[in-house]
Write a structure and sequence with these properties.
Layout: H1 2-5, H2 8-11, H3 14-17, H4 20-36, H5 42-48, E1 53-57, H6 65-74, E2 79-83, H7 92-96, E3 104-105
Parallel strand pairs: 1-2
Antiparallel strand pairs: 2-3
Length: about 110
């Protein structure tokens, strides 16, 4: 919904993304994430699992299918889904469509 309200062409530009401040900020945020997010917070997940849905994609190199399998094993009561559609990202349609058409298993 937010993306529909923003005129992407006039608000954002690829050249703006190449500004030194933007590049430095992106590198800093990435490094912080790599240092801080090193271990899954099982305690918080356990407390909030009824409110959460986890989506995993079979083609996601950052998050292999083994992570999905571990979550299913550790939180069998959770809503943990695996996108099995080929040649597309499963998560992308969540933000840009209202009716998902990809196959999820869970």
């Amino acid at each position: 919904m937010l993306l529909r309200m923003i005129n992407v062409q006039s608000e954002f530009s690829f050249l703006n993304a190449l500004e030194p401040f933007c590049l430095i900020s992106a590198a800093y945020l990435g490094s912080q994430e790599m240092m801080e997010a090193v271990k899954r917070d099982n305690e918080t997940i356990k407390e909030q699992v009824p409110k959460l849905t986890f989506y995993y994609d079979t083609t996601d190199g950052w998050c292999p299918k083994a992570y999905y399998e571990d979550m299913k094993k550790d939180f069998p009561e959770g809503d943990i889904r695996l996108c099995e559609k080929k040649n597309t990202s499963c998560i992308y349609p969540l933000f840009f469509t209202r009716s998902p058409t990809w196959k999820l298993t869970g």
